[in-house]
Design a protein that fits this description.
It contains 18 helices and 17 strands. It is of the alpha/beta class and 459 residues long. The strands form 3 sheets. Strands 7-6-5-1-12-13-14-15-16-17 form a 10-stranded mixed β-sheet, sandwiched between helices. The structure holds adenosine-5'-diphosphate, 6-O-phosphono-beta-D-fructofuranose (F6P) and magnesium ion. The site of magnesium ion has 4 residues, from helix 18.
Length: 459
């Protein structure tokens, strides 16, 4: 771990596109019971069966929340109604507000780990948002001034008139029990439910036309890029643009970033409820990048739109490791990725083709960076310095670890895996995490950065 922390001080990373404010509620039994009382168990059950993929009214939210609590799976559902946005504000008191979005979370993490340079971009940067980035010389926002690329601290670069996007995060904990009509539900795993604000202002996931010509220059300044936020796209926009338009622009960005230097690009996937949009993002973006990270719900969602519905349902319902391995193989091959990383509550997995320059041992080391960082963040709330990582290293691997390894070896023996390198490690699981939102982003950032550092040593 310490060798990586040293390497990180020499590395640069570009991050785009999504940053927001996470307004967090720690859900307890009382919250849930009062929601059920207010909306009625029967109404909620009926709406759960309908499975709304957007939140148009409060009942949509309650139904999807209870569904998430029942499965214990990490979920995110778009909020599209201004009315309901107001309802959230009057209905909940938020426990804390923190920086959110893959860019926000990863930028602060890498800057605090003393990366040489972190360039964080999002099309919108309001004042409140800028204030949430850590104020350090190594965290910079790109702007164009007098025809030149200038990197500025977010506090010197924000635009007063830019709106700030607020997502609501409901943190739930394993063991929470409540009644839905006659049914008693016990939350099986801890996690978060995200109400992702999807107003049109926030849905233009793109590089500003002004900055775009400088992407090759930015690419030259860094060792890698982590791209995310495509989940924020809409199918249609009021000015006639559509998801295809933004995805074409997104593909241009990827090519521009690599124009002067062949940097590795990681995409951190996030839940996309709309199946058509999900498919578009996968087919347009994945084949252009090297590395993709996602959680277990997301791999199930992806397999479902690629046509593997049965496998997808199995992953969702039974959490069996052999299904995850099979799913990962399919994804790696069909989209021809260099490396795929899947994070779940109990284990992290990498799959690459057999000709990957890293050994299985090295790949495992890279995953260990990810889980150590997540455990540190889960314990402390935030990683403020490289020192904090030690806290993560003291968190033991979870008690299901040995079982997971055994099942993994069994799965490998049964399956054709010779053309791949597949490794898993158990997670270091914190019993009472400060929060869980962003732990996946943390794992992926640590895994990808250490992957780059290991590749660098081979040169
Ligand atoms: N209490 C915990 N301690 C350590 N790691 C955790 C804990 N809870 C969750 N994690 C890790 O965080 C991951 C969550 O990832 P993900 O669902 O992508 O979250 P997010 O998108 O909010 O970052 C889990 O798969 C697990 O590996
Ligand atoms: O999909 P959006 O609205 O960009 O939000 C991403 C969400 O995912 C997270 O980055 C966690 O992975 C949250 O902090 C954030 O609320
Ligand atoms: Mg995630």
């Amino acid at each position: 771990m310490m060798e990586f922390l040293k390497d990180f001080q020499k590395m640069g990373m570009y991050l785009a596109y999504n940053v927001n404010v996470d307004a967090i509620v720690y859900l307890n039994e009382k919250h849930i019971e009062s929601l059920i009382k207010e909306f009625g168990a029967e109404n909620i059950k009926k709406r759960m069966d309908e499975y709304p993929r957007e939140i148009n009214e409060p009942l949509d939210f309650v139904a999807r929340l209870v569904h998430a609590l029942k499965t214990g799976k990490p979920q995110a559902v778009p909020l599209v109604s201004y009315e309901t946005d107001k309802w959230f504000n009057s209905r909940f008191k938020y426990d804390i507000e923190r920086i959110g979005g893959q860019v926000g979370i990863i930028a602060n993490l890498l800057a605090n780990l003393n990366f040489n340079r972190v360039i964080a971009y999002s099309p919108l940067l309001g004042k409140k948002q800028a204030e949430m980035f850590v104020n350090k010389d190594n965290l910079l926002y790109p702007v164009v001034e007098n025809g030149k690329l200038v990197l500025k601290k977010p506090l010197e670069a924000y635009r007063e008139s830019d709106p700030v996007k607020i997502n609501r995060i409901f943190e739930f904990r394993a063991g929470t029990k409540f009644k839905l009509g006659d049914e008693t539900i016990e939350v099986p795993y801890s996690g978060r439910f995200i109400v992702a604000c999807r107003f049109e202002d926030f849905a233009r996931i793109e590089t500003s036309p002004e900055l775009k010509p400088y992407l090759p220059e930015i690419g030259e300044m860094v060792d890698g890029a982590i791209l995310s936020g495509y989940q924020g796209l809409r199918k249609y926009y009021s000015d006639g643009k559509d998801a295809n338009y933004y995805l074409r622009k997104a593909k241009e960005d990827i090519k521009l970033l690599r124009k002067k230097k062949d940097i590795k690009i990681h995409v951190e996937f996030a839940s996309i409820q709309d199946r058509e949009l999900r498919k578009k993002v996968i087919y347009n973006i994945f084949p252009l990048v090297d590395s993709v990270g996602m959680d277990e719900a997301e791999i199930a969602h992806i397999l479902s739109v690629l046509g593997y519905r049965e496998l997808s349902d199995r992953i969702f319902t039974y959490n069996r490791i052999e299904d995850a391995v099979l799913g990962a193989k399919i994804l790696l091959d069909e989209l021809n990725l260099e490396i795929l990383q899947v994070h779940t509550i109990y284990y992290l997995m990498y799959i690459t083709h057999n000709d990957n320059p890293l050994t299985e041992e090295e790949l495992r080391k890279s995953l260990e960076v990810g889980t150590a960082l997540a455990a540190a963040r889960a314990s402390l709330g935030d990683i403020k310095s490289p020192e904090d990582v030690k806290v993560g290293l003291k968190v033991p691997f979870n008690e299901k670890g040995e079982y997971v390894k055994l099942r993994f070896e069994e799965a490998k023996a049964k399956m054709r895996t010779r053309e791949y390198k597949i490794v898993i490690i158990p997670t270091r699981l914190v019993k009472n995490p400060v929060s869980t939102v962003g732990l996946g982003d943390t794992i992926s950032a640590g895994a990808f950065a250490s992957y780059l550092s290991l590749l660098g040593r081979k040169e």
